[in-house]
UniProtKB/TrEMBL annotation:
Source species of the chain: Pseudoalteromonas rubra
Gene3D superfamilies attached to this UniProt entry: Tetracycline Repressor, domain 2 (1.10.357.10)
UniProt keyword list: DNA-binding
Keyword Hydrolase applies: no
Name the record gives this protein: TetR family transcriptional regulator
UniProt-listed InterPro entries: DNA-bd_HTH_TetR-type_CS, Homeodomain-like_sf, HTH-type_Tx_Regulator, HTH_TetR
Example GO molecular function: DNA binding
Domain of life of the organism encoding this protein: Bacteria
Residue ranges of every copy of the HTH tetR-type domain listed in the record: 5-65
SUPFAM superfamilies: Homeodomain-like
The entry's DNA-binding region: 28-47
Length: 173
């Protein structure tokens, strides 16, 4: 790994720890720079702003959650696969509710950032059956609307979110 890549990863790792400890809103780029052992300008040479740090850090962690869920995935239908992955992802998002809300808020207006990750996920869901882009897109819509609704309700839990998602997906089949 190049020095520049190591520095960028150090910034991401330290920012994540600070976000977890102090919250996204209460973590400054100056704190991130100090924790990473770099100048504030170095942080901005790798990321244009704080939301981009969060997006990149979340992207990495979402990939890790998906890979962990993948190792336990024994489902063959896209619907059951989505429910399986949602079980893991909803837990992650609820555990990091503040970051998830900030990320989804930004994602609504900058969908291109996660479009490749979402497209790969849709392909993963249909790995064992004929790919249906319309069905995959509607499934993702159901997933994201359930996620947004769950994150908006401070009393929501993973099991309720999974039940809502399952009910929505049942209408597709």
């Amino acid at each position: 790994m190049k020095k520049s890549e190591k520095t960028k990863q150090q910034i991401l790792d330290e920012s994540w720890q600070l976000f977890v400890e102090y919250g996204y809103k209460d973590t400054s780029t100056r704190q991130i720079a100090t924790a990473a052992g770099v100048a504030v300008g170095t942080v901005f040479s790798h990321f244009p702003n704080k939301i981009d740090i969060l997006k990149t850090a979340m992207h990495q962690r979402i990939d890790m959650v998906i890979e962990q869920a993948s190792s336990a995935d024994q489902h063959h239908s896209a619907r059951l696969k989505l429910r399986h992955y949602a079980d893991h992802l909803f837990s992650f998002y609820l555990q990091h509710r503040e970051f998830s809300q900030a990320l989804l808020s930004d994602l609504l207006w900058h969908q291109a950032y996660f479009s490749d990750q979402i497209e790969l996920f849709k392909q993963r869901l249909f790995a064992e059956q004929v790919y249906d882009d319309i069905k995959a897109t509607v499934m993702m819509d159901c997933y994201f609307m359930t996620l947004i609704q769950g994150l908006s309700d401070p009393t929501s839990c993973k099991d309720n979110m999974l039940r809502v998602l399952t009910n929505k997906l049942t209408l597709l089949y």
